[in-house]
């Protein structure tokens, strides 16, 4: 027996080498596990696209309901009162995010998806039976709004967990679903209502919503959840100037931005030589412009940063709103709808990725999105009814100035957020 064998036997008397003690391997960085593409990731984009289509898409459709209610179903109700239905629906879509964000964070995605799908479909079916203002408010304003609120934050939060370098682009594709909803649903309603009536035209929309939401339930999957429960509010976030000022910008932006979406058909009918049949298409045209405005800027935002892209788009939207004052021709209003839809679309598609960029970790994204959307919802709640009250006094100029000035204030707040995050101009932010 060699000396090496004797030494080995003494070191391992049982003849079996003892396992070497090694440090436990470090846990991989969660970001390295994010697929950033692939079938499963893009299926989440498809599901989110359909959720946007049946939440924001329904909000973007309200302009055609506003015109129908004022001209037919609710003739004795003021424009301001009717707009409260749409603004409440949109406000609940956003403000319910205060609760749904943390619920998503602790694993209740499928509960939110199921409950939200039921409420939006049930609300639309009930809307088809309405004949009084209070009924419309409860069904279309409250019920659809609550359901949309259950669906919206999870739809944007889940996409952000599947992508890194393509995050803004993927979110932009998903957000373009709201524009598609704002195109197809108004056309469906206006084409079917004269033939089968208000009730069945609305029920057709509700059945389409049900089918698409069932697809969402089939394809959407949660990839990762935060390791601990989250609060409804993360007060620490308001100590961060970039997040706080961005939220203020969201409040004023949504206060003004949706006014044309609610009133453009009425304006085109009353203030331009356009026929009523053509005026109806102004809302779908604006939403078509918005579809491109939610994809192209988001694609660029992956390279420039979401704040850098949102900042110029907000000021261009304000400039277009001021230009709206001088428009009184058919060609002019069509061009306005395309351009305004394009640049204002960034206010829906870019905030989710902006919130992600302003958050210290993915674990608080759901909570912070809910907080941010709360600001946006409050702005949207008051904006269009105030515009309706101004319009009731007969002043389209006042409506246009209120719209444009609100967006200017939003742009200034976003500038402060951008400088607070990084004062260097030529950097991604």
Helix content: over 70%
How many beta strands in the DSSP annotation? 0
Shape by Cα distribution = globular
CATH-wise, what's the superfamily of the largest domain? MFS general substrate transporter like domains
Rg on CA atoms, Å? 25 Å
Summarize the structure in words.
The radius of gyration is 25 Å and the shape is globular. The longest helix has 53 residues, at 167-219. The termini are far apart. It contains 19 helices and no strands. It has helices spanning 3-11, 30-33, 39-53, 56-73, 79-95, 97-105, 109-127, 133-160, 167-219, 241-257, 259-271, 276-279, 282-304, 306-323, 330-344, 346-349, 351-357, 365-392, 396-421. It has 2 domains: 35-223, Up-down Bundle (Growth Hormone, Chain: A), CATH 1.20.1250.20; 231-428, Growth Hormone, Chain: A, CATH 1.20.1250.20. Helix 4 runs antiparallel to helix 5 (79-95), helix 13 (282-304) runs antiparallel to helix 14 and helix 18 packs antiparallel against helix 19 (396-421). The protein is mainly α and 429 residues long. Helices cover 76% and strands 0% of the residues. The chain crosses the membrane at residues 41-62, 82-101, 108-127, 133-157, 169-188, 200-220, 241-264, 276-297, 309-327, 333-358, 370-391, 397-419. GO terms for molecular function: transmembrane transporter activity. Residues 1-30 are annotated as: Disordered. One of its GO terms (cellular component) is membrane. It is found in: Membrane.
